[in-house]
Amino acid sequence: MRQMGRMGYMGRMGRIGRVHRTACAATLVGIALATSVLPGHAQRRDPFDVEARQYLGTPQSEAAVQKGLNFLASRVQPDGHWNSSHYNADAAVTGLAVLAFLSAGHQPGRGRYGTFLNRATDWLADSTQRSGLIFRGGSAGPPMYGHGFATLALAELYGMSRRADLRTKLEDAVRLIGQTQNAEGGWRYQPQAADADLSVTVVQVLALRAAANAGIKVPAETIRKAVGYLKRCQNNSDGGFSYQTNQRSSGPARTGAAVLCLHLTGDADSKECKNGITYLLQHPITKYEWAYREHYFYALYYCTQAFYQVGGKPWTEWYRVIRERLIATQEKDGHWRDNPGDEYATAMAVLCLQVPAGLLPIYQRL
């Protein structure tokens, strides 16, 4: 069976702990990118020619990121996890918070945040059950949703640290994802091969992509089936994507998530991906604010990454709008607000602002 394999992760991440966010454009010169083994992927473009020249951060956005990280640092629990509203000891929230720090160039064991990032890494590893599921029983979030974001975080952590114990946990987590994929090719809330929805499926695909980046073998058949499921969620009427295959209600959050996955799995040239991009361009946040409000930071998180992969004018126009909106809506103590809680919203906002820095392999443009 064909596998998704290693993509030179250490070359891309080796310098991340020694750079400052304000110098991230120059940092990208030294991040080595390798060829993806996914079908349809060409040689990655040089990061200096592409990402560094298109870095759209400003002193104001960089200050907002720092304030957001300081807020998250003030909210970390003694054992290294984060709570957010009623999401207590939730693997997704902790995974996202860790990713926020990594996206700004911080690493466990180094610098001002290194000590609690070590604890957070251990907390995620210790949350991995024998089955491979990364989950704490007290969490209010759906297990597979948390598992996806936690696996994504573990993949990035393992890629930069090469800790042997993390590799074992990550392999277990990846195996669980494969075992719980349903006949349609998707995943749902529980770790069992039953129902499926686009939202949970997307985060499993991102986790698998990050694991492959870090050198973990991922069966290509798992990805092929997942991509097939995502494509079947598209609505032919407008090019947007629905929550499930038996629904026909498009939305920008789901569409951004699907477009991102299609890019990361080598399907950027598919009609489904192109039609999804058209839908997003026809539903800009400046005109269709209401369409983004139900899951606001979720929508920003996926659409920002999707537009970054698309590049060009769609990306620059999107990011400039989102950058200024996030700067304007940040609270004085550094946090942002959303229904799932301030910690969740702040992690998502930081991740959005840091997309053009390209410091995480999962963020880098294919």
Topology:
Layout: E1 3-4, H1 9-13, H2 24-27, H3 47-52, H4 59-75, H5 91-103, H6 114-126, H7 143-161, H8 164-179, H9 198-213, E2 218-219, H10 220-232, H11 252-264, H12 271-282, H13 289-293, H14 296-310, H15 312-329, H16 342-354
Antiparallel strand pairs: 1-2
Our Rg estimate from Cα atoms comes to 18 Å
Outline: globular
CATH architecture descriptor text: Alpha/alpha barrel
Distance between the termini: 24 Å
Major pleated sheet = 2 strands, antiparallel
Low-confidence stretches: 1-50
Alpha-beta classification: mainly alpha
What would your notes on this structure say?
The protein has helices at 9-13, 24-27, 47-52, 59-75, 91-103, 114-126, 143-161, 164-179, 198-213, 220-232, 252-264, 271-282, 289-293, 296-310, 312-329, 342-354; strands at residues 3-4, 218-219. With 366 residues, the chain is mainly alpha-helical. The chain has one domain (3-363): Glycosyltransferase (Alpha/alpha barrel). It has a two-stranded antiparallel ribbon. Helix 5 (91-103) packs parallel to helix 16 (342-354), helix 7 (143-161) packs parallel to helix 9 (198-213) and helix 9 (198-213) runs parallel beside helix 11.
